[in-house]
Amino acid sequence: MKLRTALLGAAATLAFAPAAFAERGTDGDVKILYSQAVSTMNAYLSSGTKDVEVGSLVLEPLAGFNEKGEVIPRLVTEIPSLENGGIAEDLKSITWKLTPGLKWSDGTPVTAHDAVFTAQYCMDPAGGCAQLARYEGIEKVEALDDLTVKISYTEPKPNPFTAFVGATSPILQKAQFEKCLGAAASTCTDANFKPIGTGPFRVVEFRTNDTVQLEANPEYRDPAKPAFATALVKGGGDATSAARAVMETGEFDYAWNTQISPEVQEQMLAGGKGQFVSGFGTLVERIEMNMTDPSPDLPEGERATAKHPHPILSDIRVRTALSKAIDREILVEIGYGAAGRATCNLVPAPEIFASDNTGCLTQDVEGAKALLEEAGWTDSDGDGIRDKDGKKLSLLYQTSVNAIRQDFQAIIKQWWNDIGVEVELKSVDGSVFFGGDAGSPDTFQKFYADVEMYANNFDGTDPEPYLAQYTCDKAPTPESQWQGENVNRFCDPEYDKLLAELVRTRGIEERAVIAKKLNDMLTKDSMVVVPLVDRGRLSAHSNTLGGVVLNTWDSELWNASDWYRIK
After folding, report:
1. What global pTM score does this model have?
2. Chain centroid to CA 137
3. Which of the listed CATH numbers 3.20.20.70, 3.40.250.10, 3.90.1150.150, 3.40.190.10 matches domain 20-273+543-565?
């Protein structure tokens, strides 16, 4: 049976209170708070959700995903399909038609050549593109004319909604970025901080890891939008203070990722100034195991690279023992309540793609101890910490600053201590941890620790680009400016081979079978990824901010052009 656009859902157009919009900019200022401050507006130079989402207010893809996971037009006239001829019958190409008359915020026309350049920019091997997985399998991207973009694939591509679809794959203006190819990408600070875009806003002032001041884009395609004349994105602090600034003090209109306990949520709701919005998608809190040696004793440039396998975690028995020692149900209870679910899967949704992998849900302390014994780690001197060949079983465990994450660190440290593992905890400001600064030793991509904990998710409802992040070529290295999605440097040719099979497989049922196998290879088979909690998205907005619709399949700011002030 031929694959139809229904693989990811039919295209949809949403309407939001038309009467609320009278004229662009009539509702004054909107204030948005991200507890993790923004480091760049260029999604291609950061895997951090905060950078991707705030950047999406300015830079847009050809198409995106709505709150149902359906593909929707952004800069194009319609979503390509087999029926309308946009997707080739052999599935080896997809053709996009740009909407005529679109302009960049500087007043120049948007053309197919900008999309061609964007692909060149991300696919340059020296550029270290943080979103390279979305360009998997592309043979070439060409402009058939000024308004027509054709993407050709090396093999049939049943899911072509990857490149230029979703907030992680926006279009860059060629004129602004053409001198930023390859190794020069990270040096173009003016372009990366103040990109010229097509979104509802444009950057007025950018302060790294602090604030972004924006104003309504005068060239935005809908003359009545956005309703707000200006937008301020403030970064820093923590999830609790961010939620409080909306729910109690009313200082801000929207707070992203208010990752706070259910009890605190209830207390804040009593303030009467705002409301929480939540929903489950594909956001998984997990622990990544470093497959390379992060020791500071190694020369810079070799540390945390494939040249030096991890001296402890290269043994799957150790990785499995660490997972067995964790009680995920307790983590859910102390951290999320009804907004979390214990999971063993990196891909927890949609349901058809979720593996029946449940073996990690029962804590097994004795089993963990037995595995460490089998691996030769014993407590030879009776100090409670296992050792082997004169080396202590000691790990550095890092994550971002967040009350729930620090609670998780503390309790997991205790569980690991109980099985004879010495643990040093490290917490890094989220603005830095999730930033893309190649010079910082504290980014999650550089991974100068043994294990690290964080959460992220994928655009849309098909996990192909997400699973493609773990192929061998996606590992961050000095040569890639420490960019890349494969942060634990996992490399298995069999995984890469199976991923290639997923890329060319047509039926959704068949794709689901392969996706589950890939998920299991990363989790229960190799234990390089240790999932903990399937987290619901939780953010807050004031009672005077209208038009907010939480989207767990794309940027949370996906419909900021539709926001308005309730008067």
Report:
1. 0.86
2. 20
3. 3.40.190.10
